[in-house]
Every structure is written in C-alpha cells, then in structure tokens.
Amino acid sequence: MRSTVKDVAARAGVSPKTVSNVVNGLVPVSESTRAKVEAAIAELDYIPNLSARGLRNGRSGVIALALPDLGTPYSAEVAHQIVEVAHEQGWSVQLEETGHDPHRELDLVSKARANLIDGLILNPIALDVSAIRTGGNLPPVVMIGEVEQHQVDHVGVDNFSAARDMTLALAAGGRRRIAILGTTENRRTATANIRTMGYRQALDDLGIDHDPHLEIACDEWIPGGSARALGNYLRENQLPEAIFCFTDSLAIGALSVLHLEGHRVPQDVLIAGFDDIDHGQFAVPALTTISFDKRALAEEVMRLLRGRMADRKREPVQLTLPYQLISRASSAAH
Amino acid sequence: MRSTVKDVAARAGVSPKTVSNVVNGLVPVSESTRAKVEAAIAELDYIPNLSARGLRNGRSGVIALALPDLGTPYSAEVAHQIVEVAHEQGWSVQLEETGHDPHRELDLVSKARANLIDGLILNPIALDVSAIRTGGNLPPVVMIGEVEQHQVDHVGVDNFSAARDMTLALAAGGRRRIAILGTTENRRTATANIRTMGYRQALDDLGIDHDPHLEIACDEWIPGGSARALGNYLRENQLPEAIFCFTDSLAIGALSVLHLEGHRVPQDVLIAGFDDIDHGQFAVPALTTISFDKRALAEEVMRLLRGRMADRKREPVQLTLPYQLISRASSAAH
C-alpha cells in the first residue's frame, strides 16, 4: 500500500505539517528535522501527493528555459548561469530545446500554463513575436537574445552598437576590406540581421562602400559550419583584411580553416568573434570578442520573471546590459 | 474567477475529457482539436488543476538530469543529446547542477521522489555510491560517466582501455616521456583515477618506469585551469614528448599555453584530449581524442531508465559503449 504523509510523520517523529514543509520547501526547516523526514520518505518510498506540493497560488516552483540548441558553448554558459541563479532562488529549471523551429517556440509559449510552468525564459531565434498574444493570456515570459519587439519583458545587449564598435576596431589602421561571417540565407535570425546593420553603419561612418561579396553567409553557427563556409569562400575570393565572425564558435571554425590553408592570424587577416565563450580566450590565437556579464544577465532575467509573476499587467520592461570589446591576439595591430 | 476545465471545454466546443487529454498529453488528439483546446486554454488563462495532469501511476512526466557543471562543452553536448532523446519519448527534463559537491549529489538522489521526479540521470563526480541505498527505496536512477559501483544502472565507456590505447598511440615511434595532464589533488574523481590507471598500464606494457613528475595535476578541468597548470609546470620542468590531457577542454588550454610559449604542436610535443567535443576538431592544430557516440549514450540511458521505472527490482545493468581513438594533427607523427 502506498505510504501517506501520516506514515512518514510517524516514522520521523514529527507532525504531518512538518513533513509537508520539508516536501514543499517553502518554509525553513532545521537541518536535523529535514534529514529525519527525508530518511523516512526514502525508507517508506513515499511519493508526495501532487496537491501536497504546496502550490500556493497555483505555482509549481518550476520555470522553463528554452534555447535553440543547448549543445553550443554559448548556450551552455548562459544556461549554466540561469540554472545557478534560479536554484539559488528556489526554482527548478526545466530545459527545452527549440531547434531553431519557430513553431516549437510558439508551442512552448502557448503550452507553458498547461504544462504547469510558472514562467518561461525564451531565447527566440525565429519567433514572430507578433504571434504572441499580449496581456493576461501570456504566461510570465522573459526573452533573452535579440528580438525586435517591445511587448514582452526582455534582457539583452545592444548588438547594433557592439557590431559597429567591433567593425570600427577592425578598421583601425586603415583596413577597408572588412568582411562579416554569419549572415544567413535559409533562416531568419534577428541576431544576424542586427549585427549586419551595425557592421554596415560602421562602414557608412568610415565612408566605405558596402561590398556584398564581403558578407559571407553561414547558416550553421558552429565551427564546422564556418570552416566550410569560409573554405568555400576563399576558393573564389581574395582573403579579406579582417573578418568579424558573428559568434566565437564561428570564429573558431574560421581560425581552423585559415590555419589549414596557411593564412596567419593576425599577420595576414584579423579575426574577431562575439559572445566571449570560455574557449575563445584559449583559441590559437586568443580571440578578440564582445563580452557581457552572463551572471548579470541571469540575475536580471530572474528578477524580471519574478516581477512579471507578481504583476502580470505591468508594462513590458526592456533591459539593456553593458558590453565590452575585448582585444586579444587575433586582432592585434601589426 | 479561475477558469475550469468545463469553461475550456465549452469555449473549445469539445468534451471536458478531450481537454484533459490535451493537457495530459497521454492520449493522441488530432492537431485541429489540440489547437482549439490550446487556444481556449490561452484565452481563458486556464491553469490545469495539478491532479488533472494525468499522473498515472504517480508519474509526473519529468526526469532530472544532474551534471557537475552544465557550462562545459562536454556536459552541454551530453545534455543536448539527452534532452533531445527524452523529448522524442515524451519526457521533460529538469536540469540540476551538482557543482562537484558530493552532498548535492546525495541530496538529489534522496529528494528525487519528493520532488516529483520520475527518474534521475546522474553524472556523479565525487559521490560515494555506497551511500546510496539500494533496492526499492532508490528512485529510478541511471548513472553516466565514470563510477566504481555495480549497484545502480550505468552507461559508460571503458576509460581504462581508452586511456591505455591513447598512451600507447602517443608512444608510437619510441617516445618515452609521455605526460598526463588532469590528475587531481584536491578533489576525488573516478574519471581522473581510472584514466591514470590506464596510462600507467600502458607504461607497464611498454616497459617504461612511472615518473611522478610526468603526472601533471590540474583540479579545474577547464582551459584556464590547464593553461595555468601547464604554464607553471613548464617553468620548472622539461617539455614532455607528448601530453595526454584528460579532457579536450584541458587540451585546448594546453594548446594555448604551448602556442604562447613558442612550443610547436606536434613538432615539439604531441597533444591529445578525451571526449571529442565539437570545438576540438577545429582547434589549432586539430585535436587527437577519444570519441564515443553521445546520441547512443542518450538512447541507452533513456532505455535503461524506462526499464528501471517499469521494474524497480531488476538486477542492475552495466552498459559499456564502444569508443574510438581519432588521430588528428595534434599528434601527427613527425
């Protein structure tokens, strides 16, 4: 027969209310009491009744984090920070991968309530945010990454300015043949679009004409994708003076193919990335990149999400985090 | 007033049972019916009663995945595969980070039932598995990674043989001063211990005496950790002929510091890693490594976990996946 909360209480020598407090995790319980109750739960193989989980105000204590692809280092670092901050604040994090599929993104938003998720942190890639109903019907959502919308709480970085700054930095010393790597042909991404606009703005600032041959498409934002794209490009085009890769992962693929083809970085071509992933600093040579505080992102996201849970009707908040251009050996002046 | 399942059914023009089927996700429902019900749920801001979530046999549809640190590329790639396979099979994945803390590992095991987790996939680092009670009290658990135990279902790779094979490969051509990088001083890890034993076995096979100066300690298994450890080592020791790094992340840090100090890879020293992370293939030079099929790992883990849920009393299963030594430029013969 299935054990009940009373069985656990009797075994642990505490009141049923104390068992409930341990299970719910909402009320502080002394370590020794907690240990006794947990031992009794384990010994009796007790499965708490769902309604015993203390879902005050219908809360489950679980938030969902939806990322396009968890397997990339940038996503992993962001997920790590969000999981860490959420845990510190008592939330469990359920992980969802959208796989660059706008239908899956919309599906997650519409199902968040039904799936007993208290809130959703969404890094959309292709989501048509106009498809998201605003107002009371929306689950508490905070978006991260690049989105062109103002209806939903959002934490991001000024990608336009960051891309312009990086392009200007690569142009220092009079370089004019500055390429970008990572524009996309087969899928829409706000990230690629905004960084491309920042790049073009820098060229305008410098009085350099846009050369479409210097905008190198790469749909797959992984090292293998950029190695293939840049390898193909170099068979038919001259080596640019500098290449601004739209992510560090793209830059790592670029460094690999340039090494294999005998081009020296930075002597023959400057390389820069974006994201400041942990491995970028240890690339050969070390990667110049755009950095922002991923821990601060996680903290702001959780702050906005809790605020949205508390007040579903408040005006959407748009937060912009500062970024830093970090110059390393891959773009060292020569 | 809070909406009920009847309100949703009326709005969608379906029966309450159909609403329940959509919410539970256990019974197939046509796409058009699902869309109508989900629209009604969103419009009415309906929050399903917990007991409506269809927890047949007390199941929540959620499994937990506990990793030491989600932020490293290897963990991220494994997590990505497990989340993908779990989703395909209808499970949500709740993510837990143990942060190399054995107490947190034990805590997760003991709380899995109380937290309404149907099963737990655990990659233990320091867990004293003898602390885990066996038999009916244990939640359904499958362990991955290196563990020295036979009481719990486990999927892994033969790390001893893989480390021996890699050491023998690096010794080909008569090299004798072969170092390892990644032994640990301040924390116990089964992974480091087993790989060290495989390395020493290879030296025995080759008739090479163990030289403790060639076992380079590094507690932090990230590029920054190995760059520091190897940098310090090289100030007081001669460059080895080859360095077998216990992970690709350690190897990437090693490549970085060797590049900065003017040592050429592979001309001056061979480098190898372990894990075959996506970025390793695009390191400069490309990394020799031990590879295994991470998708197959995820499939076997989910198969064992479902089997354990179905039969809590069956004998523990130990599955060993094949591995492959992939030779790339970082260890190319010269």
From TrEMBL, chains A, B:
Which SUPFAM superfamilies does this entry report, sorted A to Z? lambda repressor-like DNA-binding domains, Periplasmic binding protein-like I
What would be an example GO MF term here?
A: transcription cis-regulatory region binding
Where exactly are the transmembrane stretches of this chain? none
Q: Which InterPro entries match?
A: HTH_LacI, LacI/GalR-like_sensor, Lambda_DNA-bd_dom_sf, Peripla_BP_I
PROSITE patterns recorded for this chain? Answer: HTH_LACI_1 (PS00356), HTH_LACI_2 (PS50932)
Domain of life (superkingdom): Bacteria
What positions does the domain HTH lacI-type occupy?
3-57
Write down the SMART domains for this protein, in alphabetical order.
HTH_LACI
Keywords on this record?
Answer: DNA-binding, Transcription, Transcription regulation
Recorded protein name is LacI family transcriptional regulator
Q: Which organism is it from?
A: Arthrobacter psychrolactophilus
* Taxonomic placement: Bacteria, Bacillati, Actinomycetota, Actinomycetes, Micrococcales
